[in-house]
Amino acid sequence: MSSHRAVENLIARYAELVDEGDFAAVGELFADAVFTGSGGPVRGREAVERMLRETLIIYGDGTPRTQHVVSNVAVEVDERAGTAVARSYVTVLQTLPELPLQVIAAGRYRDRFGRVDGRWHFVEREVRITLVGDVSRHLRPAAGQG
Known about the structure:
Elements: H1 3-20, H2 23-29, E1 34-37, E2 40-43, H3 45-55, E3 66-78, E4 83-96, E5 99-116, E6 119-132
Parallel strand pairs: 1-6
Antiparallel strand pairs: 1-2, 3-4, 4-5, 5-6
Helix pairs in contact: 1-2, 2-3
C-alpha cells in the first residue's frame, strides 16, 4: 500500500471508530500522539479515550449516532524522512428518533504522521470546528461547544 493511501486510511479509521463509539480503539490510534480539540491538547491512549468519553454523549446502541464525513483530503508525504502531513474537512451528521438528520458541526483536521518500522501512525491531530449547529445531543453539557 502506498504511503498516501496508508495515511488516508488512518484518517478514515478515526472517523469510523468515533462513529462506532469505540473510544478505546481511537485512543490506540493516538497512543503516541497529541490530539488538540476545543478542550486543549491531550497526549496518549488513555487521555484521548478519556477525553472522548467525557465529551461525547453515547446512546443505547453504544454510538454517538453520528457520521463523520471527511473530504478534501490533501496528503503530503516525505518518504525519506518517514513523515507526512494532511489537511481535510470534516462534516458531522447526527440523527436520533426525535432529531431529523442534520449537520451538527463542520471544520478542519490538520494532521501529522510518522512511520516506524514501515507502519504509519498519528503524531498529532488538530481539530478546528468552525461551524456549529445543534450539538445539544452530541456533546455533554460540561464539554461546551467544539
